[in-house]
Amino acid sequence: MNYTPDGSPIIARQNAPYMIFILILFLIAVFVFLIWIISKVVSNYINSPEYQEKQKNRKTTLKDIKKLQKEYNFPKEEADLLFELCQLMDLPNITYTIKDSQALQELFKTAYFKLMLSGADENKLNLFFRLNYSIELISAKTKSLISTKQIQPETIVFFIADNNEQFPFTLKSNKKDYFELEVPKFFYELKNRPELLHRLRFTFKTANGLSHNFISRIVRYQKNTDGSATIFVAHSDKIVTETHRHFRRQMFDSECTFSAAKKVQNPDGTFNFTISEKKYDGTLSNISGGGCCIKTNLPIQEKQHLALFLPGFSNGLKITGIIKGTRKLPGGFFALHIQFLQLSVEAQNRIFEYVYNYKL
Fold first, then answer.
1. Angle at the Cα of 60 from the Cα atoms of 120 and 352, rounded to 5 degrees
2. What is the pLDDT of residue 11?
3. pLDDT by residue (tens digit) across 146-183?
4. DSSP tag of 331
5. Sign of dihedral through CA atoms 180, 181, 184, 190?
6. CB atoms < 10 A from the CB of 289, how many?
7. Three-class secondary structure of residue 162 per DSSP
8. Which residues lie across from 223 on neighbouring strands?
């Protein structure tokens, strides 16, 4: 009788492909398991406090700058200057440093003084200020305000009326369900003061100088025993950071003068201004590297050109601009919102120095 016993060479040859297939699957499983173990170890290390601290304290590299530039899309010339400043200041990892806006501004201030002492020209200083604002906006995005519960006491919060007039109130306390604003006596006594529970607009600035807007409702008016008046405002979790501005704006309170100006176009397409000798008095309310607001008792219409004389700055400043908006104020005054048209790099840098409080 012919038969093939189990375990014979013929059966072994028939089973060989299956054994190889099982072996390959086993090796793949072992490989995948090893990869998982390694990735787990690496992930734990990367998320460990020791690694985070090491990364935070290491020096900023060009790779860090390029990554930041790609993510937030700011100009290459600003990125190049940022890397130069990081080397100049021996700046720790910018990826972490940028989240601390106050510490970053102190570093920028020191860097500015070093640039000044090294003899940097006005164009480089101007690029520095533009970079500074770009970094401010990035810093704001990394740590955005998400609720009015985060507003610090003593912050000035402006109520924006329907005619865009702004009333400054002081934040006295911030509670779980509301925050309390101290308001001027005249506002409390207004016959047409805002009604309770109506949607109202507010704006305020954080320590880094950025403006934030929100909409909320007044839930109560209150007159205190000491004669002061307060309003209680409901919290809002819809805060919008103003990023449409090109420059940081700062409040100002200084006398200024201005004259009418007439725009004259030259044959080559450029233009200049002829300035009237008659001057008018005004008060500079706020200013940025691109414009300002002045208060006057003259109801000047929009689209008029002005020459501004600002004695509140070193050696005074003369700037030509156009009125982009006119807003009526209490007491017969008007706020003129002016966009600068002719402003030298040097003059703009002096404004930046004021706005950022950079004083040697």
1. 35
2. 58
3. 889 988 899 999 998 887 778 889 999 999 899 999 99
4. G
5. negative
6. 24
7. coil
8. 229
